[in-house]
Amino acid sequence: MRGYLSSEDLAAIAAAPPTATAAGLARALGQPYGSVHHALSRIRRAGGWFSPVSDTPCTECGQPVAGPSGSRTHVACRPAREMRQQRERRSWLTGAPLPGTERWGSPDPVAAAARRARERAHALRYYHALPEDRRAALAAKWAETDRCDYERTRRTAGCHRDTWTEDDDRYILSHLNTAAREVGLALGRTTWAVRQRRWRLRRHRTTAGDPGEDE
User: Which runs of consecutive H residues, i.e. helices, occur in 100-190?
Assistant: First the structure.
């Protein structure tokens, strides 16, 4: 069974003279013979110890990715990739796909609802498993962020309490994955009004009732 060879072990094997044997290197490094023999044979066949470099552009930043064949994202860009994939999945499930997700087709309504329910249940389990002080800190942070967003949109809410128009509704439905703050700034509404309208429009989609007006 092959053992794990560290970077230092591989460097020593790569620097060994042509007359060095796998058995001698294994004894000197204190590693299994099989692992050393495999690494030595691979390095000598390749003409040295190196990693192939691809010119594939990173899926997030667009810069070339240097790494093993098949690498498509920089290590530092992986969090951004995960966030993008989450946004794309959520937008697809809500029926407002982002550019690039059209090839996925339309989600099955029942399967989409079940998946949203599972994700919500997972998020709730994670939240309730946190220590009490951590939950309190998160709640305070969310409340403060929400308050700041509301105050910012309230100052520019020129259409506050006005009747919602069809153009307003179309804009909201086409920007379901955009932060309520940004939608509110674009429509001259507050974040709370946008959230309430979104809820009513989504409810109207499922019940075919009158979406009504915000108070």
Answer: 109-129, 132-155, 166-174, 180-187
Cβ atoms 145, 152 nearer than 8 A: no
Encode burial over 54-67: b for 16+ CB neighbours within 10 A, e otherwise: eeeebbbeeeebeb
Measured CA to CA, the distance from residue 149 to residue 121 in angstroms comes to 27
The per-residue pLDDT for range 116-171, each reduced to its tens digit, is 788 888 888 988 899 999 999 999 998 999 999 999 899 888 888 889 999 999 88
Domain extent listing, the chain: 7-46, 130-207
Distance CA 191, CA 182 (A): 8
| Single-letter residue type at 14 | A
Distance CA 145, CA 134 (A): 16
Residue holding tokens 């937008």? 91
Decide: helix, strand or coil at residue 57. Answer: strand
One-letter amino acid at 159 equals C
d(CA 11, CA 24): 15
CA distance linking residue 127 with residue 142, whole number of Å: 13
